Amino acid sequence: MKALVVYDSLHGNTEKIAKAIGDAISGEAEVLRVGAVNSSELKPCDLLIVGSPTHGGRPTSAIQDFIKKIPESTVNGINVAAFDTRLSKRWVKIFGFAAKKIADILEKKGGNLVLPPEGFIVKGTEGPLEEGELERAAKWSKLVVKEKK
Question: How far apart are CA 66 and CA 60, in angstroms?
């Protein structure tokens, strides 16, 4: 199975989660920062996972640009999943989270959303990750692979 994990990271937390996700996927999994990927030239893959930190309830502008520019023909019919890093504070929920917005766009382009979007918790704006989140990311990744259509 070929998997591509595309992420953006501002303080390194989302990058750590993306790498934990990629490392847990058996087969050919490539983990790339969003700036290293041209959305109009995505290589064929069986699974596309996209992740971003949540800022103001949205993904970073780099991830937003990336997913908006992915041609529908590239995503149509492939398995997709989305994740984010987020604070756990209640007031943050008012704005929503990045993963849901990423998943919605990927689904609108014809992607098969394998599991609901997932959020991984950071202790503060700059982190660090809550204890156990890297392990949880690896377990989530295995569920994504297991549930793919």
Answer: 10
